[in-house]
Amino acid sequence: xxxxxxLGLIADWIPQGAHVLDLGCGNGELLRWLAREKxxxxxxxxxxxxxxxxxxxxxxxxxxxxxxxxxxxxxKSHFDVVVLSQALQATHQTERVLREISGLGREAIVSxxxxxxxxxxxxxxxxxxxxxxxxxxxxxxxxxxxxxxxQDFEDxxxxxxxxxxxxGYLAETADGQAKSISFAPQxxxxxxxxRFKQ
Length: 198
Hints:
CATH class: Alpha Beta
CATH topology: Rossmann fold
Radius of gyration: 16 Å
Helix content: 25-40%
Largest sheet: 8 strands, mixed
């Protein structure tokens, strides 16, 4: 099974045998890969009923829950890594979610779409909200509540007292692949990934 490019980088950051909590886990693809390739254990949390059913069908431990309602179910648990991939922008209580996930694990990994990508900037300069392969919704029907640039997100982590230990920037291509970006990632990366600790 080949992982989505951002999940591939996340998987590289997760150590062998880790206990993982994957928030917004979708169909459980990351947890399945980690169990098979790195002997990891863990749980997924997902709100979408069909995705939960897909997790169950693939043997992934999953709980159907809304992140905005809190993670009290896991307060007595401790994980090596807590993952939140491309879902933070859809949360209502972003600061609380970041504080909670950083308290549930030794480290957290979060990936976000980079709203500072040059194509988004160009669209705004022409007077329109961006609509593209990465942001396919019109401004009035998008599930995304918060749009952040890489600098916005790093500033928020610093304000919350969370220390970045690693970062990665990816530029997705039209064929669904991605390449790592090091030069001018604020403008060239479509996705930013961060590992951080309290």
